[in-house]
Amino acid sequence: MYRNHTCGEIRMENIGQEILLAGWVQRVRNLGGMTFIDLRDRYGLTQLVVDDHSSDEVKNIAATLGREFVLQTRGVVRERSSKNSKIPTGDVELQITELNVLNSSATPPFTIQDDTDGGDELRMKYRYLDLRRETVRRNLELRAKMAHVVRNYLDSNSFIETETPVLIKSTPEGARDFVVPSRMNPNQFYALPQSPQLFKQLLMVAGFDRYYQIVKCFRDEDLRADRQPEFTQIDCEMSYVHQEDVLNMFEGLTKNIFKEIKGIDIVDFPRMTFADAFEKYGNDKPDLRFGMMIHELTDLVKGKEFKLFDDAEYIGGICATGCSEYTRKQLDALTEFIKKPQIGGTGLVYARVNSDGSVKSSVDKFYAPEELQLWAGRLEAQPGDLLLILSGGKEKTLPVISSLRLEMGRQCGLMDKENFKPLWVVDFPLLEWNEETQRFFAMHHPFTSPKPQDIDLLDIDPGKVRANAYDLVINGVEIGGGSVRIFDSELQAKMFKILGFTKEAAEDQFGFLMNAFKFGAPPHAGIAFGFDRLVSMFAGLDSIRDVIAFPKNNSGRDVMNDSPSPIAQAQLDELYLKLVRAE
Ligand code: ASP
């Protein structure tokens, strides 16, 4: 037997017992005649002592140990003379009678502890060592626990967990596919699924009624902190449901995860239309942890000879609570912030609401004090607040105000990571016009159903059609998204036409789906949650990499096994592939 206890469980009540432990050497301290060894495993740390009571053999072995050696040991539990209140086993230690080195270890390239000295790349290269660190492992344990809660909830609601293929047909819609050549089918390729969308819809045609899968998906996109080329979704589909049924089911799932994992009762779960979210928060994923809502001021500020506002289609602003004392330097920094290319703002007008209620603005010469009072009133400002106002085209300006709002939320400390504010954003537009290609794209995907009351608009003004599509947003992060699906083959064919598919192309790409719809497809709807994002939010982390056991870096590389990598000529030949060197 290697062990009969773990390194995390020995307590005062075990004193006098002889126990066996196995684990890794965290550190060794030699104090004259005594050697202390911290032995670590997944469960914790136990202090081993080699002293005069130990045999010479044990002492000799103890003298050879290094960090990360793998040990198996026998000893008697005793009370420590100097206790360590920081760890659960800190009251006791193991007086060693037997010590076996199961494996030695090269010196690890960084320290295996919470505040490691290892940089990012190094930790990724030796990810298996990084994963020995408690902070990192805890994130993965959280992930496993959350997956378990999700399965419990969905299983108990009659969802059938079903695997769908990983080698599928490439489709041009959506993000870029990763493709896989086929040896047995020369010059033909599979794609890795961007999501199991079509398969889950076919499972509804098959009468599965409720499906789910915690599933890897693949998208060949540019990477960011919250994106990886392969990521995990909680993917679900239901039959004979309306949008409302789906929202209720997955509101239930979300509440259940918060309750089971964090002990939090989520009470408010508002719904907001896409149009409202855009007007009031400037984006489709509002962070509801704080107010500072956007208000339009166009009607109040135009016609006063202030050219900037007179020329603008839209003028709107926010009220930064308690910020009236911002210095010139701070205000300049805010202007710099909105002018960053990725934010795209041009300038900022501000007004301070003084403690006596008077308003002083950067454009005082154009506006009378009573007019400035109206601004403050519209923005629901109180004495001590700061009004920040932007102008320009509406579609461009609202997102800039949104970025400014989030920045102010950050500066004012209103984005507490342990305060969770979920909501549904509903009624997304069905289509998005793309100037470059001069065609419509599906905002969600081509299988999303238009709102029945908007179907007539499809022929007249497709851009105005709203979809039965919804996003789950928590603290400004899109955690999930889904839609009610088209289940009528003719409407689906029409949708492909609007999206610019020829009849032949639609038939070639999606014929199997439209054909399936001819065999009694039930009404159905579904959703997918980004599982990595959900876990990283629960872990209080900004990057999803930290909740993935073996993530890729920002260039999509696995630096541990150095992939992607070239393959042998024989492999290429077998696949009928010829390399073209990029110059
Ligand atoms: N397949 C969709 C996605 O990955 C989600 C859904 O509509 O269920 O975004």
Tags for this entry?
single chain; 583 residues; alpha+beta; OB fold (Dihydrolipoamide Acetyltransferase, E2P); BirA Bifunctional Protein, domain 2; Gyrase A, domain 2; 3 domains; eight-stranded mixed sheet; five-stranded mixed beta barrel; 22 strands; binds aspartic acid
Largest sheet: 8 strands, mixed
**Helical/strand content category:** alpha+beta
Spatial extent as radius of gyration: 30 Å
- Outline the low-pLDDT stretches: none
The dominant shape is: globular
**Count of spatially separate domains:** 3
What ligand species are in this complex?
Answer: aspartic acid
Strand % is 15-25%
- Strand order of the biggest β-sheet: 6-9-10-22-21-20-17-11
Structure in words:
- By secondary structure, the protein is of the alpha+beta class.
- The protein folds into three domains: 12-103, Beta Barrel (OB fold (Dihydrolipoamide Acetyltransferase, E2P)), CATH 2.40.50.140; 136-271 and 421-570, BirA Bifunctional Protein, domain 2; 290-411, GAD-like domain (Gyrase A, domain 2, 2-Layer Sandwich), CATH 3.30.1360.30.
- 29% of the residues lie in helices and 24% in strands.
- It has 17 helices and 22 strands.
- It has helices at 56-62, 120-125, 127-130, 134-156, 197-205, 243-262, 274-281, 298-301, 307-310, 328-339, 369-378, 394-411, 457-460, 489-498, 503-516, 531-538, 569-574, and strands at residues 18-31, 34-41, 44-50, 70-79, 92-103, 160-161, 179-181, 189-191, 210-218, 230-239, 271-273, 295-296, 314-320, 349-353, 359-361, 386-392, 422-426, 431-434, 439-442, 469-474, 477-484, 524-530.
- The strands form five sheets. The chain has an eight-stranded mixed sheet with strand order 6-9-10-22-21-20-17-11, sandwiched between helices. It has a five-stranded mixed barrel with strand order 1-2-3-5-4.
- Strand 1 (18-31) and strand 2 (34-41) form a beta hairpin.
- Helix 14 packs antiparallel against helix 15 (503-516).
- It is globular.
- The protein starts with 17 loop residues before the first strand and ends in a 9-residue tail after the last helix.
- The relative contact order is 0.10.
- The model has no long low-confidence stretch (mean pLDDT 95).
- The chain binds aspartic acid.
- Aspartic acid binds at residues 195, 197, 481-483, 526-528.
